[in-house]
Design goal:
Elements: E1 14-19, H1 30-41, H2 44-67, H3 69-78, H4 85-103, H5 106-117, E2 120-129, H6 130-140, E3 144-153, E4 156-163, H7 168-180, E5 185-192, H8 198-203, E6 206-210, H9 214-222, E7 226-228, H10 237-249, E8 250-254, E9 265-269, H11 276-288, E10 294-297, H12 304-312, E11 315-318, H13 324-336, E12 340-343, H14 361-369, E13 373-379, H15 381-384, E14 397-401, H16 415-419, H17 422-436
Parallel strand pairs: 1-2, 1-5, 2-3, 5-6, 6-7, 8-14, 9-12, 9-13, 10-11
Antiparallel strand pairs: 3-4, 13-14
Helix pairs in contact: 1-2, 1-4, 2-3, 4-6, 10-11, 13-14, 14-17
Length: 437
């Protein structure tokens, strides 16, 4: 393996980490992207016939992928011919990005979070369409990307590839980046998952292959390259079971990239409707694969049918007539065990017009667990099914996720933060949720 490509004589102190995209950062490929773009681009009738055509073409796609990667990509990107770029970007924002975020390997996300804390630059070099890669890089906080460019004329994609970034071209892009960068890099690290990534991997001082096939695994063994097995969390069947209800009511869903895929977390939301949890549980599961937990009064478990429903929704029974400490202990234990816990700090369903004061219990849970808090605003659920109604009606519910609020570590507490009592901090959390509604 080649040691530091440029071998510069000036002071070197930074590390550059290079990732492939499909199959390395995400458990997906360009065919997934094409399918989602096409399904959401066409109407019902045209979309139906396109699905049939897609199924017929899959064997040919597979054959090209195994024999000629360049021909595979020319055929794949040729399927975009005549499509409006503006409409594709809207689909990317609404559908494709959410799918890819769900497919993002937690192991890769964890590595990138750590790298950003260190003095490290990250670059994505991919054969995927550049707007897709750039959008995902923006969500991940990555500044540098190099990806396949497609020709656009009068707002329409022609299906022609201007710059195909794969194989040797990936190595060229990496070399060009190092030569043109104002920053000096003392070490280059690369991650890839395909034999087409080998030229890029060969350029690095340190390389890793992700979920390799036999050919790539043999190459890695010969070159003493470490192989890594990455996977995404399998989605529990209950998430898919409740999703139709969620999609029936869902209007907009923003800020989903803030939901953590691992680790204990406290989700706080306003509470005005019986539908609140039927929105949050499936949406969190859709994005992360995680089964959120929440506590519910023991009376809800008296009906065998309803008890099963809320159990599948992650409910833990609590006797409200017992001490509040028992409920808090359950919450603290869940979060400490790495669960994602949903709490409605108002304590009960409130009026749509005025948000009730938040109870201080949520602050105590955060103090005891040192877990981050994720604020959520839910709008429209009250109109769809208010506490005064026996049955739900139609409506549109918008869900907005705010940025994570980190816990104040005891070592980081200042004199000012010590003076802020739990009631004040609960009011601050309420304001965060209110801003999202």
């Amino acid at each position: 393996m080649q040691s530091n490509i440029l071998n510069r004589r000036i002071k070197l102190y930074k590390t550059l980490v290079c990732f492939d995209f499909d199959g390395t950062l995400t458990a997906s490929n360009a065919l997934h992207q094409l399918y989602i773009f096409k399904v959401n681009y066409y109407g019902l009738i045209v979309g139906f016939f396109w699905r049939l055509l897609f199924l017929i073409q899959i064997p040919y796609f597979y054959y090209l992928y195994k024999t000629d990667n360049k021909l595979f990509n020319r055929f794949l990107y040729g399927r975009y011919r005549g499509m409006q770029q503006k409409k594709l970007l809207e689909i990317l924002d609404k559908n494709v990005a959410l799918f890819l975020w769900r497919q993002l390997f937690p192991q890769a996300e964890k590595i990138m979070q750590q790298l950003k804390k260190e003095q490290t630059d990250i670059v994505i070099i991919s054969a995927s369409w550049s707007p897709v890669v750039e959008y995902m890089a923006l969500l991940l906080g990555i500044k540098f990307t190099f990806a396949t460019q497609l020709e656009v004329k009068q707002g329409l994609l022609t299906g022609k590839i201007i710059d195909f970034v794969d194989g040797e071209r990936k190595a060229q892009k990496l070399n060009q980046f190092l030569m043109c960068s104002a920053q000096s890099y003392g070490k280059v690290v690369a991650y890839g998952n395909s034999t087409w990534d080998i030229p890029m991997l060969n350029c690095a001082d340190e390389a890793y292959v992700i979920n390799p096939n036999k050919k790539l695994k043999d190459w890695a063994i010969t070159n003493k390259i470490e192989t890594l097995s990455w996977s995404i969390k399998k989605r529990h069947w209950s998430i898919g079971f409740f999703l139709p209800i969620t999609k029936f009511y869902l209007g907009s869903f923003k800020g989903w990239q803030h939901i953590p895929k691992t680790g204990g977390c406290i989700v706080i939301a306003n509470h005005t409707s019986y539908l609140d949890h039927y929105m949050l549980y499936p949406l969190i599961g859709l994005v992360t694969g995680r089964r959120a937990k929440f506590i519910s009064k023991v009376e809800h478990f008296k009906s065998p049918i309803f008890a099963k429903i809320i159990t599948y929704l992650g409910a833990y029974p609590i006797d409200r007539h017992s001490s509040a400490k028992a409920a808090l202990d359950v919450c603290i234990e869940l979060v400490k065990n790495g669960e994602l816990l949903i709490i409605y700090p108002e304590g009960t369903r409130g009026d749509n017009r005025i948000m009730n004061e938040f109870k201080a219990g949520v602050v105590l849970i955060q103090e005891k667990t040192q877990a981050p808090v994720l604020p959520v605003g839910i709008v429209g659920a009250f109109d769809a099914w208010s506490p005064a109604k026996k049955y739900p009606t139609t409506g549109t519910i918008d869900v907005t996720i705010g940025a994570l609020i980190p816990s104040v570590n005891s070592k980081q507490k200042t004199v000012k933060s010590e003076k802020i009592n739990k009631k004040q901090r609960a009011a601050q959390l309420k304001q965060k949720v209110k801003e999202l509604c």
